[in-house]
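Sample entry (248 residues):
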Amino acid sequence: MKRFLLLLLICSSLLTFGQNDKKLFVYGGQITKEFIKYTAELTGKENPKICFLPTATGDNQYYINYWYQLCSDLKLIPKVMEVWINSSTQKESFEEILLNMDAIIVGGGNTLNMLAIWKAQGIDLALKKAYEKGIVLAGGSAGSLCWFNAGTTDSRPKELTIVNGLSFLNYSHCPHYHSEKSRKPLYHENILKKKLSSGYACDDNSGILFINDLATESVSTDSKSFSYYVQEKNGKIIEEKLETKIIE
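Predicted structure, serialized as tokens:
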């Protein structure tokens, strides 16, 4: 009987933490070689296909060139999915492109505009399918904020405002936590006022890995950058600095 229960527990663990684990890696700032390399390792593939989505910058060519430059000496196959296209130049659907990848990295820029385009083109639904399939999702700045239920954005004129995300992760989020002075106090204020749920904040050079929707590891590219869990308790903000691992 004990042996049967042990086998049942092992089988259950394999089903729960199998090949199709949902992996999502977010970081607070812009894309770096270290974050690309870390994302590639999460796929478990020797030479993974990784697609970059520069939607938030309007498929800016400089950003696309920078992506290829960063990937030039890494063990991966870099791709880019542009949305400013026409039917004569692209014969695959956005869903077909995304579901054929091992990982997808979303760049920074205007979160609000990016989400509007994704929803108009059905890219949000394709990304959800990719996530459920076990394709690694990642991104920083707009590319991190988009995965959460909500957070603050500079996508509108004049001031930081709240934007609703895709809710793949049911927490709020704050990128650029210490690099932009208004980010942290406004994030705290919105949580205290119940405008945002509890959530995770990242410095520009720090990120968090979520597996099956749970935060499992915090990584940074230097010793001065961290990620945090921020919540309200008894009318006060509680900020928990996550233990971090330096990556190269």
